[in-house]
Design a protein that fits this description.
145 residues; mainly alpha; two-stranded antiparallel ribbon; 6% strand
Length: 145
């Protein structure tokens, strides 16, 4: 093999390492962004799920619900955001009462997340399990639908 052949082979090898390194870095960056998005949406899902079917007077859940709404608008898909905004607009139309239907939002978010982590979609609504928050009841359990 000639000197020129060795130089060309060496340059092609170095160039291919550079190209492979570039694509690996891009893939790692995309995976990290995907991981961050999934983690924020899982957290938003948990905050929404934790805050529903609770007494509106329990302020501890209000910030979580507000945070979940913000996170969905930041990290959710266009469809997630459209559903959220539609439900928020419906809730605003109920005068002074906030009647946000989170079932639609949670079902969509749940199925988006399940699809992202390669699990099958679920057609049923989320079922709620809450300890009673009534001061008149002794920590009774109730399954809410």
């Amino acid at each position: 093999m000639t000197v020129y052949g060795l130089i060309i082979t060496s340059l092609l090898t170095i160039a291919s390492w550079g190209v492979l390194n570039y694509f690996e870095n891009e893939r790692n960056k995309d995976n990290k962004i995907r991981e961050i998005k999934i983690n924020y949406l899982i957290d938003a899902y948990r905050k929404l799920a934790n805050g529903v079917q609770r007494s509106p007077s329990i302020a501890a859940y209000h910030r979580d619900l507000e945070s979940a709404v913000a996170d969905i608008q930041l990290f959710g898909s266009k469809e997630d955001i459209d559903i959220l905004i539609d439900e928020l607009n419906k809730a605003k139309d109920t005068a002074n009462h906030v009647l946000l239907n989170v079932d639609v939002i949670l079902n969509k978010l749940r199925n988006s997340l399940r699809k992202e982590i390669k699990l099958e979609e679920v057609d049923s609504n989320v079922q709620w399990f809450r300890f009673s928050e009534s001061p008149n009841l002794d920590s009774s359990l109730k399954l809410l639908k």
